[in-house]
Amino acid sequence: MSDFKDFSKVFKEQLEAITKQFKELNIEESLNRMEKVAKHGAENGWTTPPHTTPMEFEQLMEGKNKDEMDMAFDEHYSDEDNFQAMKQTLLDNVFEGKWQELLDDCFDNYERGRFKITIPSLFSIIEGTVFDIVQDQKWRVAFEREIEKIKEGSIKKPLFFSVYTFINKAFSSGKFEKKNYKPSIINRHWVLHGRDNISEWQRVDSLRLFNALYSLTLLNSNTNSKNN
After folding, report:
1. Residues 126 and 212: beta-carbon distance below 8 Å
2. Is the distance from CB of 33 to CB of 41 less than 8 angstroms?
3. How far apart are CA 50 and CA 87, in angstroms?
4. Three-class secondary structure of residue 20 per DSSP
5. What spatial distance separates the first Cα and last Cα of the chain, rounded to whole Å?
6. How far is Cα 69 from Cα 46, in angstroms, rounded to an integer?
7. Do residues 206 and 119 lie in contact, with contact meaning Cβ atoms separated by under 8 Å?
8. Number of neighbouring beta carbons within 10 Å of residue 226
9. Angle 101-85-88 (CA atoms, 0-180°, nearest 5)?
10. What's the rounded Cα separation, in Å, for the pair 126 and 122?
11. Residue 115 near residue 203 (C-beta atoms within 8 A)
């Protein structure tokens, strides 16, 4: 009987160790997958919406090209609950009211179909918000430092990578001197330096900037809570 008890104890301990290892591997694999999908989405103009589950944002992004992703997000935000989740978060003094008046105007114009006027304003708000979060003119370096602070296994890391990748692309050099060059997604320098063709701006471009700012709201709270 003693031998059986010893065997049972060892077997239980081994089983618990294997189960723990399996869970840890699954978590790591899941986070790596989320990070990969988040980067792919951001490279095509879409950050991870804070209200979505990992499965939901993977469905919006994974395996899709830019046009397919644009359609998926357009449909996602056509759902009034999803749109209101974003809108109310942005208007709920999340940035201490700093941008509320301008955001009110942006949403009002967007909902009336006058989306083009929102694009320069949203770029300005995003740029100001990024600076408020990292408090450094060298925001790329500051973002990388923030990513390094996040604990391993934290679900916050894919969100940071999502926002960092999008901002890095949308705020990249305009390359005005390069003949026939055109950014793959709407670009801050092309918009604010008057180099873009506004007839090519689409409603989904405004939506992608609202969505990026929406992702920054969670990033802002994460940074303020010392990246737990």
Report:
1. yes
2. no
3. 12
4. helix
5. 48
6. 8
7. yes
8. 7
9. 25
10. 6
11. yes
